[in-house]
Write a structure and sequence with these properties.
The protein is an alpha/beta fold and 319 residues long. The chain contains 14 helices and six strands. Helix 2 runs parallel beside helix 4 (67-78) and helix 4 packs across helix 7.
């Protein structure tokens, strides 16, 4: 097992220096009301049922297709294009944050640490609605919300203050939610227009429009802060996130100007969070994931249990 106590000191130091942001996944929802509904498999099963699409047991097909591909399959098979609104309605049925949601949110608020989340729901949000300092009169059909956040402050500095940013979309804007494989691919194309190229950074000539879009979004936080990753499986389904982490590694030294090889920490518990079996395939998968993380400068930190992970990282002691 990793020396998690030693790693925890590094995380705490980065938080104290405001060099860190939290990247939170769906694991923070597990254990709360309706948590089974919040899992990819359950969403897929219920969307297929709602769309009247016959779907084999998800466990028998998800090894051959990613979850975004399964969503694409359902959309094509049904001939309908209302998957986003169906998922929004399902998620909206469960609107009570659990203890872990509140622990993460209040700790980040106290220490003024930004939160990036892949979750569509509003359980981590400080306020009931997203807002943007830079855009007004937003259509309900908006697809990209990189500059939207929730915050306990009226005026927020995206890079430094407590705020919650949604990487994969939000239930408030159904079409912003990344569900299908096409959604993910379109998001990569969209983000490519916002992220500086290595040559642009080397030459010091970044397009003014691109620079503004980058700095007015969660990309500024994602690429310039060390990331403390919690509750995120970071599996093969996280198409956009894996691509972003690869781009981040390429640009890290230019953007941050630091020789520190550590760009973040991946906090997990095999025993209670990932629930891996003893199969050779799963052992190989976790080894492959560790290789990927290490190559990105992200240190895997294995905690004994998921309860200890949240208690140690988000403990309520004050400065």
């Amino acid at each position: 097992m990793d020396n998690w106590k030693k790693r925890l000191k590094s995380i705490s130091e980065a938080i104290r220096k405001k060099e860190c942001a939290f990247l939170i996944g769906n694991g923070v929802n597990l254990g709360g009301e309706g948590c089974e509904m919040m899992k990819w498999k359950e969403l897929i099963k219920n969307v297929a049922k709602e769309q009247k699409v016959t779907l084999p047991e998800v466990e028998k097909v998800d090894n051959g297709m990613t979850y975004p591909e399964l969503f694409s399959y359902i959309t094509m098979a049904s001939g309908l294009n209302n998957t986003h609104r169906i998922v929004r309605n399902m998620i909206s049925c469960y609107n009570t944050p659990n203890e872990k949601n509140m622990m993460v949110r209040e700790y980040a608020r106290h220490h003024e640490i930004p939160i990036l989340t892949t979750n569509y729901d509003d359980y981590l949000d400080y306020e009931p609605k997203l807002r943007s300092r830079w855009r007004k009169n937003v259509s309900q059909n908006i697809k990209y919300i990189e500059e939207f956040y929730t915050s306990p402050h009226k005026g927020v500095k995206p890079f430094d203050d407590a705020a919650v940013w949604h990487i994969n979309g939000h239930v408030q804007y159904p079409l912003s939610m990344r569900l299908s494989f096409t959604d993910y691919c379109n998001q990569i194309v969209h983000l490519t227009r916002m992220i500086p190229l290595q040559k642009e950074l080397q030459d010091g000539r970044i397009d003014a429009k691109k620079k503004k879009a980058f700095e007015h979004s969660w990309l500024e936080i994602f690429f310039r802060k060390k990331l403390c990753i919690v509750g995120l499986g970071l599996g093969k389904d996280e198409i956009v996130l894996r691509w972003l982490l690869l781009r981040r590694k390429v640009l890290w030294n230019r953007l941050v100007g630091s020789k520190d090889k550590t760009t973040g920490w991946y906090c997990y518990s095999l025993k209670t969070e990932m629930k891996l079996s003893e199969s050779i395939e799963n052992k190989e998968e976790i080894q492959g994931k560790k290789m990927l993380l290490n190559s990105l400068g992200i240190v895997p930190v294995e905690f004994p249990t998921i309860e200890e992970l949240y208690e140690q990282i988000f403990k309520s002691e004050r400065k």
